[in-house]
Amino acid sequence: MTADLRHVDTWLFDLDGTLYPAESGFLDSVVDRMTDFVEKATGLPRPEAFKLQKAYLAEHGLTLKGLMLHHGVDPDEFHAIFHDLSLEALAHDPDLLAALARLPGRRLIFTNADDRHALRVMQHLGLSDLFDDVFHIGSGGYEPKPSPEAFVRIGAAHAIEPTATAFFEDSQRNLEPAADLGMTTVLVGPYAAQSTAPFVHHRTAKLTPFLNGAQLKEAA
Q: DSSP secondary structure string, 59-92?
């Protein structure tokens, strides 16, 4: 069945793992760099550093948030470790670009990454001209998804009407506060079909065919 998205005029997308496939392996290199940083910042052996990294992610929605709160980590120093990551694993996808281009209204990125990482990835994928703005972790005052406050902040910054907004994410828990506000939620990725969460309204393994098949608002 096709998704009825004729009520949507604001398209909100997570970036990493959503606008490129998780199977690319790019996020593995992100996680490796992050573990290196946690190991150095805490002095823990690597297995323990990885465990702490995941614990902070689970508790705060963002490893960096735990590092800032408990270890006084400078967010700029943390984000710098990702700015020279190779982007070779990320493939340009003209079919996705065409699917995004047909969406009526405005398109926004909502990411827990920083601005420089987001812009690097978007430029590499050819996404830059398709989005009106990027709401990154600095934009939200380092309040990450899935914190409801992060959604309040992006809503205020962009005058978002939740009932006319669709939010696309590869992380299920980040969709719950969006649904609570009245947004239409779409879980993207290889495990989406397994989700039974009531706050997930649509599920798709692949973003492009979902967008191509959706019913959209007619152009004015």
A: HHSSHHHHHHHHH---HHHHHHTTTT---TTSPP
- Give whole-number Cα distances, 155 to 39, 100, 107, 149, 150, in Å: 36, 21, 13, 10, 8
Question: What's the pLDDT tens digit per position in 39-56?
Answer: 999 999 999 999 999 999
Q: In this model, does residue 84 exceed pLDDT 80? A: yes
pLDDT at 218: 83
Q: How confident is the model at residue 94 (pLDDT cuts 50, 70, 90)?
A: very high
Closest Cα to residue 178, out of 192, 191, 193, 164?
Answer: 164
Alpha-carbon distance values, 207 to 13, 15, 45, 113, 134 (Å)? 11, 12, 38, 20, 19
Confidence (pTM) = 0.94
**Alpha helix (H) residue ranges in 135-213:** 148-158, 176-181, 207-213
- pLDDT for res 219: 62
Domains of the chain, each with CATH number or no CATH: 4-22+92-216 (3.40.50.1000), 26-80 (1.10.150.450)
Answer yes or no: is pLDDT of 140 > 70.
yes
Q: Which tokens hold the place of 96? A: 């996705």
Distance, in Å, from the CA atom of 72 to the CA atom of 65, rounded to the nearest integer, reads 10
Question: Cβ distance 11 to 107 under 8 Å?
Answer: yes
As a whole number of Å, the CA-based R_g of the chain is 17
